[in-house]
Design a protein that fits this description.
- The protein is mainly α.
- The chain has one domain.
- The protein is 61% helix and 0% strand.
- The chain is elongated.
- Residues 142-156 have low confidence and may be disordered.
């Protein structure tokens, strides 16, 4: 029972956020401002929509990293492996999101949105990876090669440099 609770703690936020993204992309009543003479989308609406994609998929990447690297209910993956999986999942989910939009009246899919979704996830992974490497290289389980360090990595003494005289 405790294992199930830990799994839910790790993965329910991911699933809930994915459901929210799909719900938002399935709405045909989102406000879109168009130029009445040309029918083109006004840039401010376009920019806000792209910022929304960055936020949606940035948060999804954070939640996926939490679930895939977490010790309690997560997959306990090394950060590099989790980051690669996170970027791939976000890219594929972005494609699913755009496919769903192709089925919704007044919505249209864009390859640019999939690219923004994937790059947002990549950006989050790079920032978190850099922060972990800077902040706590051995405690975070990230070694110089990005591979999870062993449990005794923090306890090993640093190699001593011998002076030649």
């Amino acid at each position: 029972m405790q294992r199930l609770a830990r799994l839910c703690w790790a993965w329910l936020p991911v699933l809930a956020w994915m459901a929210l993204i799909l719900w938002m992309s399935g709405r045909s009543d989102l406000p879109v401002r168009t130029n009445p003479q040309t029918g083109e989308t006004i840039k401010t609406t376009f920019t806000l929509a792209k910022i929304a994609h960055v936020v949606e998929y940035g948060v999804l990447a954070l939640l996926l990293l939490r679930a895939t690297t977490g010790q309690h209910g997560g997959l306990r993956l090394a950060f590099r492996t989790a980051a690669i999986g996170t970027v791939l999942i976000c890219g594929l989910f972005g494609g699913l999101d755009e496919f769903q939009q192709s089925l919704v009246p007044n919505r249209e899919p864009r390859l640019l949105d999939i690219a923004i979704d994937t790059l947002s996830a990549l950006g989050v992974c790079l920032v978190i990876g850099g922060w972990l490497r800077f902040k706590q290289p051995s405690a975070a389980g990230v070694s110089g090669s990005g591979v999870r360090a062993g449990p005794d990595a923090a306890e090993r003494p640093a190699p001593q440099r011998q002076d030649r005289r």
